[in-house]
Specification:
The chain is α+β, with helices and mostly antiparallel strands. The chain has helices spanning 9-28, 78-87, 110-147, 152-185; strands at 44-47, 50-53, 58-64, 67-72, 95-97, 100-104.
């Protein structure tokens, strides 16, 4: 087998791992009834004329299981940060105490838990699609290599390798989704 006819499984694996990492990041932003500093990561504040992540204009702390506090460094940004939190869709009503914004995490009701499990399922489906796209790229590489003279045995070997990697990553996505949904539904 010549080197130019080999498929870069490591690259495909790295790209699939990237989809898995993105899924874990999205799952971390889902509110499960417990306070977490990662739930405010996606919130952007219009600071000094450009969108800035909330955690870059203040210190985010979790002093107790149902409370997140954000100590805004610049007093002029407190109201903008509060507005960004209200508009973020987290469903949390921020409370101001000087430059500290307190986010009390309310208990989730059954309907909200079901909604969050559906959102988690959508995130997982996006990750599966990303993994399948990487698989398709790998299969396209195999087709090009076949046209360049790859033997049928090698083609079968690489197809099986790509499919095996895809199946493994999809199983990891399903397992992560199951765990997240169980965490959300836990009362």
């Amino acid at each position: 087998m010549s080197d130019d006819l080999e498929i870069d499984i490591d690259d495909l694996s790295r790209r699939m791992d990237g989809a898995m990492g993105s899924l874990k990041h999205e799952f971390a932003s889902l509110r499960t009834g417990r306070a977490s500093a990662s739930m405010v990561e996606p919130i952007m504040v219009d600071a000094y004329g450009s969108p800035t992540p909330l955690n870059q204009i203040g210190t985010v702390n979790v002093p107790e299981p149902r409370m997140v506090t954000i100590n805004i460094w610049d007093k002029a940004l407190v109201n903008k940060a509060e507005k960004a939190i209200r508009d973020s869709g987290l469903g949390i009503n921020p409370q101001l105490n000087g430059t500290i914004i307190m986010l009390p995490i309310p208990e989730l009701n059954e309907e909200r838990r079901r909604d969050l499990t559906r959102v988690a399922a959508q995130y997982a489906e996006h990750a599966r699609v990303a993994i399948r796209n990487v698989r398709r790229d790998g299969m396209d590489q195999i087709k090009k290599a076949k046209a360049a003279g790859m033997s049928e045995d090698d083609q079968k070997f690489w197809s099986d390798e790509v499919q095996s990697l895809t199946d493994k990553m999809i199983a990891l996505v399903d397992k992560a989704l199951e765990a997240k949904q169980a965490e959300i539904m836990q009362v």
